Structure formats: C-alpha cells, structure tokens
C-alpha cells in the first residue's frame, strides 16, 4: 500500500464561535523540502506554493486565526501547528503572517506567510509538533494539506506530490525529501478530521468544545459547582475521534458545619444532603427569626466545592442575669444586670482592702466561671512621728493604739491630755494608714544657760534655751578658747558642758629702755614692779621710783603688760 507523504497542518486554537463546514481548495505547483539532520531535534521543513487559488477566509482579526500543516505518506504523518494567539501578527485582506521566535522549542513552525490569490509559505525548525518520519523514501504520493480556521470559517489548501526525491547521507544520519510540481487534490486526504462536540460527564462540561473540535485539540473538563474533578487526562481529538480521557466529575462533600454558638447535625456529607441547625446550649437566636431550628442543604458554591447553605440563622451566647456576689470589702462596679457573655467583671476592693488572685469572674453563656480574686483587709505600717511614742505597730484595718510625747518632749498642738487614740483606717483600695486627732510634740527647752568657765560667756543664749540650740562660748580679751564642742540643749538638758573652756593668754617679758622689772612671761592677771635702771632717773614727772604693771588682755587670746606712764633716762 502506498505510503502517505508527511502531513503538516498548522491549526489555530479553537474559536468560541462554531466553525462552518471545511472547504477543500486544490492547490497546484509548489515545493516541499524536508531535511532531517540526524542530531536530536535538528531539522528543517519548507513548504511553498504559488497559486491563484490560495485563500484564508474573510476574517481579519489576528486573535481569531489559526492554521495546521499536515504532511503524510505511506501511513506516516507529521503535524505542524500555528495556534491561535500572539504568534499571528497580521491578518488582513491581502496577507496573514505568523512568527514564532521560540521555535522549535515552543512549536515546530518558525514562520508562515499567506497571501490570498498568490502565495503560501511555511517554514518549520523541526519535523513537526507530531514528528514526520522520513527514514524511508515514499512509495506513493506525498499529501499536503494546510487547514486554516479564520473567524470560525475553515479552509483547506490541498496538494498531492508524485515522484518525490529521497536522499540519505553517506553516513546514514541525514535524510532529505524534496517534492516539486504538485497537483491540486480536491479530496484532501492529508487533513486530519475534526471531532464532534464532546459529550460531558454528569456534573461537568467542556466549555471550549461545544461545537466541532479540531484534531489535536484537548477538551478541558470543567466540573459544575458542587462537583470535584477526578483523573488527570482530558479527552483529545485525533483524526475525528476522542482518545485518552480518564477525567470525570464526582459530587463534592460539605465539611462539618462549625459556627459560633450553633449546634447542628451537619457533618461531612455529599452535595444535596440536608441537616438541622439550632442554637447551642447557653445560646439564643439573634437574627430576629422565629423557630428554634432551620434546615441546611449541602449546596455547590464552586467547581469541586460545596458548603452548607441555609436561611439566615444566627445565635449569640446568653447573658448572665446579675453580677456575681462580691467578697467582703469588694464590688463589681462595671457589672450590674444582664451582663453580656464574654464580659469579665473586674473586682474593685474598697479602701482598706487589698485585691488578691489573678482571674476575675467572666460571664460565659449565662453563667460566671473562673474567678479567684478576693479582697483581703490591708495593714497599717508602724506609726512614725517626730517626738511621738506609741504602740501603733503593724496592724489590720480597724485596729487602735495610743500616742504620747517622747521623754523630754511635750505636746505642742494646744490640745489637752498627754495621749490620744489612733485607728487603722482605709485611705485607698489596698491601703490603710493610722488616723488620729491632731497630736504634735516638741522637745522641752533648757530652763537656764549653763555656767560659763572663767574668762568666758554664752552671749547668744538666754533662758529658756530651745532644744537643739548650741550655746557658743565666747572668751574675753586675754583668754583663748579651747575645745571643739560647745554645750547643746537636747530635750531640756545641755550636753558637752565643759568640753570648751577659756585658757588665759600670756604676756611676753617687758622690755623698756632704761627700765628694769620682774615682768617676765606670765599669765593674764599677773603683776610685777617697774623701776628705772641704775644710773637712770624717772623722766615722766611721776613722784615714785617704781610702779606696778599688770598682764592685761588686749584681745581674744592676747595679753600685754599694762602700767601707768613710767619713763626713765640716764642721769646727766
């Protein structure tokens, strides 16, 4: 049986509109060249024909044209597709052009040029999207069909070659087929047959295959809402029939219904199942509807997806009718009646109480749970006041104690009585303090100034001397102050008495011209005699031959010999 020459068909993608019946147009002349270079993927196919019968249909939209080149001989077929899409850069009344720069990796055809009434040229970079086997020379005719689907109209340009030349390279790796002077073929046996519309399975459809399906096209199964697609291979049209399909649509299932405050028997179930929906215990209906329950249906919402569908039915948790009873010393100021579920009632402890615990009671579906807080009486810290003594130590709220003035102190607020009573009273939440009537004390004064030492005085102190006051010792002229601590009045008595004193100053020896005396180094208050030296006479007019000198203070810590005027000079 004669072998059929390779069939190269550039088939555009399916159009949305139904195609009309294909018109077979015999095309004569032309040339077909097929070169297989042996190396994997390396080949070249060129088909060119010049004929006034070349046609492409009336469409002019580049987005709605596609073509297929089929080459067949001796039962071998090659298919070269030019699918609908971006590859078609032109579709006008005089020319249509297809360019695929990614060929042969992304489709066999590199380019095609179609000029109605003049020219058809197709160039491919491989042996076809369905490869053509050119290992053997043809024993009969080589058949070529170019199928063009343009805006829903299908046209077939059909050529038959006889007497083609077939060559094999000396190394056996390269094959070359060259066919020329073709004749028009009105029967167009090379063209692959389209398939009728694919019948979908239950729950599914083939939206891209509603009319005639070109050979080589795959019909993608789309399952309706509420159905799940199973399988991996959709039906593909090949030469008039569908092959290889294992996909189907199975009813989807609804997941168990899970809504706040809702109780139901809506478990995992297939599309179309029904169940009953109601409010959970401790909840009530909130949508304003009547009735305690409603019916839900498992309904498809998308391909492969179903969900439970029902009339509006919402529930909310019941409130707690009243606030929980507070502990002693506490209250729940933010909670009174009809406390909403989910509300936490914060315990507030009254003044004089301390809050303990970590969790306040919370209303959950009409009942309180989880509270561990309470109010514990606060404690007063020991009372500390200036010059006050008491038995007011650490004690709980409500305790009492007695205040009085410390030894050496007296009450200074004008009140009567030597003592008063204090009570541990709350002053804030969790805090208490000792509370009492005004009661202040001040230290007793010293009734008299301390006696000063010889040569000293306390000029800054006068009786009574306030507690805490220091009486600074001042030494008279001719005395020096000794010691560091002056007397201080503390709680009615002086301390440090005698630590400072006044020490008499000393006079240096008396040295006066023509005068002799026994006035040597001596303390303040000492006396000595002064007279003229031998061979000298008194010259100040005084009557006696000697006078008495006294060591007298001239400033604090300093003294000098003091005597009446007494001068002497040598006798003549």
In short:
With 572 residues, the protein is an all-beta fold. Helix content is 0%, strand content 44%.
Describe the structure.
Helices cover 0% and strands 44% of the residues. It is mainly beta and 572 residues long. The strands form 21 sheets. The chain has an eight-stranded antiparallel β-sheet, with no helix packed on it. Strands 1, 2, 5, 6, 11, 12 and 15 form a seven-stranded mixed β-sheet that branches. A four-stranded antiparallel β-sheet has the order 23-25-27-28, with no helix packed on it. Residues 1-20 have low confidence and may be disordered.
Mean pLDDT: 88
Number of strands: 59
Strand content: 35-45%
Q: Share of helix among residues?
A: under 10%
Entry keywords:
572 residues, mainly beta, 59 strands
Question: What is the strand and helix layout of this fold?
Answer:
Layout: E1 4-8, E2 23-26, E3 31-36, E4 43-50, E5 65-73, E6 76-82, E7 88-91, E8 96-99, E9 109-115, E10 119-124, E11 142-150, E12 153-161, E13 165-168, E14 175-180, E15 183-184, E16 204-205, E17 222-223, E18 227-230, E19 236-238, E20 241-243, E21 248-251, E22 253-254, E23 262-264, E24 269-270, E25 274-279, E26 283-285, E27 293-302, E28 305-309, E29 315-317, E30 320-322, E31 330-331, E32 337-339, E33 348-349, E34 353-356, E35 362-364, E36 367-369, E37 374-377, E38 379-380, E39 388-390, E40 395-396, E41 400-405, E42 409-411, E43 419-428, E44 431-436, E45 441-443, E46 456-457, E47 474-475, E48 479-482, E49 488-490, E50 493-495, E51 501-504, E52 506-507, E53 515-517, E54 522-523, E55 527-532, E56 536-538, E57 546-555, E58 558-562, E59 568-570
Parallel strand pairs: 2-12
Antiparallel strand pairs: 1-5, 3-4, 3-14, 4-10, 5-6, 5-11, 7-8, 8-9, 9-10, 11-12, 12-15, 13-14, 16-17, 18-21, 19-20, 22-24, 23-25, 25-27, 26-29, 27-28, 30-32, 31-33, 34-37, 35-36, 38-40, 39-41, 41-43, 42-45, 43-44, 46-47, 48-51, 49-50, 52-54, 53-55, 55-57, 56-59, 57-58
């Amino acid at each position: 049986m004669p072998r059929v020459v390779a069939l190269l068909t550039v088939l555009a993608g399916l159009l949305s509109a139904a195609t009309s019946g294909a018109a077979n147009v015999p095309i004569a002349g032309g040339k077909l060249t097929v070169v297989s270079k042996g190396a994997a993927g390396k080949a070249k196919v060129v088909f060119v024909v010049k004929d006034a019968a070349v046609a492409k249909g009336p469409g002019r939209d580049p987005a709605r044209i596609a073509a297929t080149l089929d080459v067949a001989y001796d039962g071998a077929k090659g298919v070269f597709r030019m699918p609908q899409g971006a590859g078609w850069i032109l579709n006008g009344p005089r020319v249509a052009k297809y360019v695929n720069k990614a060929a042969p990796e992304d489709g066999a055809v590199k380019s095609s040029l179609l000029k109605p009434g003049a020219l058809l040229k197709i160039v491919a970079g491989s042996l076809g999207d369905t490869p053509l086997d050119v290992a053997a020379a043809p024993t009969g005719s080589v058949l070529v069909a170019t199928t063009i689907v343009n805006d829903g109209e299908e046209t077939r340009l059909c050529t038959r070659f006889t007497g083609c030349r077939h060559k094999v390279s000396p190394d056996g790796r390269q094959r070359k087929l060259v066919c020329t002077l073709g004749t028009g073929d009105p029967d167009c046996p090379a063209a692959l047959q389209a398939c009728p519309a694919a019948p979908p399975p239950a729950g599914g459809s083939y939206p891209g295959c509603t009319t005639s399906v070109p050979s080589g096209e795959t019909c993608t199964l789309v399952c309706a809402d509420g159905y799940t697609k199973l399988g991996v291979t959709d039906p593909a049209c090949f030469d008039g029939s569908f092959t290889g399909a294992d996909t189907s649509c199975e009813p989807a299932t609804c997941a168990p219904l899970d809504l706040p405050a809702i109780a139901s028997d809506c478990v995992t179930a297939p599309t179309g199942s029904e169940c009953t929906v109601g409010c959970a215990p401790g909840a009530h209906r909130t949508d304003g509807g009547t009735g305690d329950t409603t019916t839900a249906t498992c309904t498809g919402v998308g391909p492969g997806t179903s969900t439970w569908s029902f009339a509006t039915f919402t529930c909310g948790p019941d409130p707690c009718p009243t606030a929980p009873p507070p502990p002693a010393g506490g209250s729940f100021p933010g909670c009174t009646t009809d406390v909403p579920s989910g509300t936490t009632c914060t315990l507030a402890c009254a003044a004089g109480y301390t809050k303990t615990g970590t969790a306040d009671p919370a209303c959950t579906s009409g009942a309180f749970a989880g509270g561990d807080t309470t109010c514990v009486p606060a404690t007063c810290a020991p009372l500390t006041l200036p010059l006050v003594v008491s038995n007011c130590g650490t004690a709980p709220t409500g305790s009492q104690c007695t205040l009085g003035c410390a030894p050496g102190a007296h009450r200074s607020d004008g009140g009567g009585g030597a003592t008063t009573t204090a009570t541990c009273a709350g002053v804030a939440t969790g805090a208490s303090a000792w509370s009492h009537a005004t009661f202040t004390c001040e230290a007793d004064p010293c009734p008299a100034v301390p006696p000063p030492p010889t040569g000293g005085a306390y000029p800054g102190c006068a009786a009574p001397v306030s507690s805490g006051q220091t009486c600074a010792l001042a030494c008279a002229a001719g005395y020096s102050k000794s010691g560091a601590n002056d007397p201080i009045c503390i709680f009615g008595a002086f301390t440090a008495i005698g630590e400072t004193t006044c020490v008499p100053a000393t006079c240096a020896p008396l040295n006066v011209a023509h005068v002799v005396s026994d006035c040597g180094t001596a303390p303040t208050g000492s006396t000595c005699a002064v007279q003229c030296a031998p061979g000298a006479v008194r010259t100040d007019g005084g009557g006696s031959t000697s006078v008495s000198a006294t060591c007298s203070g001239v400033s604090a810590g300093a003294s000098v010999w003091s005597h009446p005027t007494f001068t002497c000079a040598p006798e003549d």
